[in-house]
Design a protein that fits this description.
By secondary structure, this protein is an all-alpha fold. Helix content is about 80%, strand content about 0%. The longest helix is centred in the N-terminal third of the chain and has 27 residues, at about 10-40.
Length: about 110
């Protein structure tokens, strides 16, 4: 994304948005794991998926590996990878000529 931003295919604020959402999503996974270990109230899986779908999936992927959290549940992993695919398709559309018109409105 940083390379695409340098070639002006993606506005730099999109890179910052992904980085911020990834950090927030990673922290949400860490908090959920901590709560799971303590046996207290947990963050809903749908909330974790929503943040992944919104662009925080890199942070979620790192959290799943680094924290070993939500990495064994097949249903969760399936839905997670679905959010990654949908997000990547949306990003690809945004950097296409059609999506560029939408980005131009916000630039």
């Amino acid at each position: 994304m940083v390379i695409a931003s340098n070639f002006e295919h993606i506005p730099i604020y999109v890179v910052y948005l992904y980085a911020t959402l990834s950090l927030v999503t990673f922290l949400m996974y860490a908090l959920d794991k901590s709560k799971a270990q303590k046996g207290t109230w947990r963050i809903a899986e749908s909330t974790l998926h929503l943040f992944s779908l919104a662009g925080g999936w890199p942070g979620a992927a790192i959290a799943q590996q680094a924290l070993r959290h939500k990495s064994k549940k097949r249903e969760f992993r399936f839905m997670f990878w679905l959010t990654v695919i949908v997000n990547c398709c949306a990003l690809a559309w945004l950097i296409s000529p059609y999506g560029a018109q939408v980005i131009a409105v916000f630039s």
